[in-house]
Amino acid sequence: MATLATTVDGLKLPNPFIIGSGPPGTNLNVITRAFREGWGAVIAKTISLDSSKVINVTPRYAKLMTNDGKEVVGWENIELISDRPFNIWLDEFKKCKDQFPDGVLIASIMEEYNRDAWSEIVGRCQDTGVDAFELNFSCPHGLPERKMGAAMGENAEIVEEVCGWVMSAAKIPVWAKMTPNVTRITDPSRGAFRAGAQGVSAINTIRSVMAVNLETLRPEPTVEGCTTPGGYSCKAVRPIALRMVMEIATMIRREFPGRTVSAIGGIESGTDAAQFILLGGDTTQVCTGVMKFGYDMVKRMCDELLAFMEKHKFETLEDFKGKSLDYFTTHAELVRMQKERKAKEKAAADEVAAKKMVKADSEWSGDDFVKQSEALARGTK
Ligand SMILES: Cc1cc2nc3c(=O)[nH]c(=O)nc-3n(C[C@H](O)[C@H](O)[C@H](O)COP(=O)(O)O)c2cc1C
């Protein structure tokens, strides 16, 4: 019997489906709902020591629909990290671990570029019994104005330095969440691994402008007549996330064997998750998908992933993790392989043609007479 159970960085998960940091993990009420529905783990909404600096606006989401208006394919948000007080969060982490001692609860944390602040947030959160940390180096809007989030994640040296501060204070596994708004996602990921992080999560949202309203000429989502570039998520970002997870997993194989990657970006089904695992993902996170379909989608995703595994006779996630990484190469190598294949086919065709040539008069046939004549002839113009 195939199983979805997996152990990643010592964390025992019943399945690889994790609630990604955002609205689906924004308070105790929804976090416990996720555990009750069967999610493998929950990453809470990102928190910081001083929530009074976090002021959200409305509206803060904008959707991109298919032409028939029936499906959401892209989602932009200009939401900040949690605006709920840190002490309330500590209390809720404790309550959650009391209610679900086996549920894997991951605290997503973010702080300013200050070692004491990072050490304090790590120490106080881990005292509540949370199982792991995700470091938010990746929020692309609002927070970078305070030199937080993606402002740190864009700089591999800062990622390495801050991860180092966290690693010296953390007694539980640490994943660093990467921003896709960089040229090479492997640079900051390498920084996190060099500092000792057990894993990275990729990707956070892609910096975006959703649309411009052609009546009002105002960009969306419009707040008091203006907007600010936001973060793009949902299934439209999946191909970009797949590419980035593939690049990180390839680097892990070469430079950091044993480290992990938690894949995120547009995952809505078990077959989406299978693709990320084939490209090296250890776990798969869902954020916008939960906002579209609700918490019980995890059951469908588990069934779909199991069906994929049974079809291919894979018994564990490990059996197919990274299996498709071998099928990536350079463009020059694709050209060489294609040339080699065509040359082989031509040689085989020439051999068949040579065999068909009439070698003795007894081989002439009435039906193939013209073709046999042609095969023997060499023409000029
Ligand atoms: C409304 C919204 C709020 C989010 N807030 C956070 C956050 O607080 N911390 C974080 O690390 N990522 C946050 N994210 C990013 C998601 O966790 C995820 O990385 C991204 O949306 C891509 O995955 P998805 O397509 O499954 O949503 C947020 C995403 C959305 C849509």
Fold and architecture overview:
- The chain has 381 residues and is α/β, with parallel strands linked by helices.
- It folds into 2 domains: 6-325, TIM Barrel; 331-376.
- It contains 12 helices and 16 strands.
- Strands 3-4-7-8-9-10-15-16 form an 8-stranded parallel β-barrel, surrounded by 8 helices. The chain has a 4-stranded antiparallel β-sheet with strand order 5-6-14-11, with no helix packed on it. It has a two-stranded antiparallel sheet with strand order 1-2.
- Helix 3 links the parallel strand 7 and strand 8 (132-136).
- Helix 3 crosses helix 5 (156-169).
- The protein is elongated.
- Residues 20-23, 45-46, 75, 77, 79, 81, 108, 136, 139, 177, 204-205, 233-234, 237, 264-267, 286-289 line the site of flavin mononucleotide.
CATH superfamily of the largest domain: Aldolase class I
Name given to the CATH architecture of the largest domain: Alpha-Beta Barrel
Q: Could you name the CATH class of the largest domain?
A: Alpha Beta
Number of helices: 12
Strand content: 15-25%
Total domain count: 2
Bound molecules: flavin mononucleotide
Biggest pleated-sheet summary: 8 strands, parallel, barrel
What is the ordering of alpha helices and beta strands?
Answer: EEEHEEEHEHEHHEHEEEEEHEHEHHHH
Considering the chains and any ligands shown, give keywords for the structure:
381 residues; alpha/beta; eight-stranded parallel barrel; four-stranded antiparallel beta sheet; 12 helices; binds flavin mononucleotide; 2 domains; elongated; TIM Barrel
